[in-house]
């Protein structure tokens, strides 16, 4: 009788588990809409209000089609099923994190981009992008407010024997206040990306426009250039040497920007920040060049120790952030140590996100009002 009861209990638990699984599969809300970063007029990929993504790929001769999400496809694959007219379709097994994600399509072993989506530079190549609606997406939305200008500049680089590219954001008031000089943030991308990342994937210009319109920040210039991060292969970060990029940034780009834009050209009004590997670069350069930058920001890019900073009086702000799915305790503990040592240090953790652009968008939103306050 006892064995019979145990068997009934096991069967009951299996039935409950199966019922829960079936219910979970049946609860996908069919309110799918085209992603906001699709090519003009393209219906797929689509996303729903829960964060699921649905793909539709035309490959009539293919034997298998898989969509790989995340930087380099690190988040695994969604296997598509062949339907009518050579179209393959499939929906992610679960909801995705809010915000922007890279992805690519593998067709019979070959890697391709989705023709329905816009492309963004990541993983050292142009990848397809998808935007999952976020509950807080209003802060980076395109609104009817005065807009700044993002312009491409080419600056001479003797150290690399070429002209190099940077993008410069100037706030809406820059063209109107001809006598005013503006502080500057030098903002770096991560590994696999380039100088287009912060404005394309990060929407940093829209975040700035909205914060300025709301009166939450003092306007400042942002300069974004290629950090030479992709010279090293993934997994070989320890062998990366900062010297080459440090020369380009400090000895070539900053003088060019100060000569061609109305900047407040001094250490007190100059900041450096970066995400991921760009944060690693920021850490090294700010420590190496204490007379150049006064505000430091590492976004999922490590931490500072009080003993690393030789002259505390030169540092106005240290901002450290990451996603809650990363290592938030490391960021919080580092800021606690910095505060105890007398630094103006701030931590921020993006809830529900990992090593991804929603973390860095939110981080920048928290960082910007702290910069150049006096």
UniProtKB/TrEMBL annotation:
CDD domains: E_set_Esterase_N (cd02858)
The keyword Signal is assigned to this record: yes
Molecular function in Gene Ontology: acyltransferase activity, transferring groups other than amino-acyl groups
Transmembrane feature ranges: none
InterPro entries documented for this protein: AB_hydrolase_fold (IPR029058), Esterase-like (IPR000801), Ig-like_fold (IPR013783), Mycobacterial_A85_antigen (IPR050583)
Position of the signal peptide: 1-26
Keywords in alphabetical order: Signal
Name under which the protein is recorded: Esterase
């Amino acid at each position: 009788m006892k064995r019979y009861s145990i068997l009934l209990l096991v069967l009951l638990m299996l039935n409950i588990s199966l019922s829960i699984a079936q219910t979970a599969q049946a609860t996908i809300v069919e309110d799918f809409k085209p992603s906001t970063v699709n090519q003009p007029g393209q219906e797929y990929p689509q996303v729903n209000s829960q964060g699921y993504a649905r793909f539709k790929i035309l490959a009539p001769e293919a034997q298998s089609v898989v969509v790989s999400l995340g930087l380099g496809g690190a988040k695994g694959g969604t296997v598509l099923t062949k339907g009518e007219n050579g179209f393959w379709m499939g929906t992610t097994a679960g909801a995705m994190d809010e915000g922007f994600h890279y992805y690519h399509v593998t067709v019979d072993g070959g890697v391709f981009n989705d023709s329905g989506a816009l492309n963004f530079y990541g993983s050292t190549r142009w990848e397809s992008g998808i935007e999952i609606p976020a509950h807080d997406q209003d802060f980076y939305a395109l609104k009817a407010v005065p807009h700044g200008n993002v312009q491409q500049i080419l600056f001479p680089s003797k150290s690399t024997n070429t002209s190099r590219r940077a993008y410069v954001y100037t706030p809406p008031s820059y063209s109107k206040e001809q006598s005013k000089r503006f502080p500057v943030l030098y903002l770096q991308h991560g590994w696999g990306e380039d100088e287009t990342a912060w404005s394309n994937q990060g929407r940093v210009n829209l975040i700035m426009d909205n914060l300025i319109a709301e009166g939450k920040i003092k306007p400042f210039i942002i300069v974004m250039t290629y950090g030479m991060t992709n010279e090293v292969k993934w997994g070989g970060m320890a062998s990366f040497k900062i010297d080459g990029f440090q020369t380009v940034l400090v000895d070539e780009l900053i003088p060019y920007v100060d000569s061609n834009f109305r900047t407040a050209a001094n250490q007190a009004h100059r900041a450096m920040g970066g995400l991921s590997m760009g944060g690693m670069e920021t850490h090294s350069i700010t420590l190496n060049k204490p007379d150049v930058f006064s505000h430091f920001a590492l976004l999922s890019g490590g931490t500072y120790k009080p003993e690393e900073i030789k002259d505390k009086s030169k540092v106005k702000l240290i901002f450290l952030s990451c996603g809650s799915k990363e290592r938030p305790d490391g960021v919080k503990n580092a800021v606690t140590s910095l505060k105890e040592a007398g630094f103006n240090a701030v931590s921020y953790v993006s809830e529900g996100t990992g090593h991804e652009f929603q973390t860095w968008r939110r981080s920048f939103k928290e960082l910007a009002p702290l910069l150049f306050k006096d």
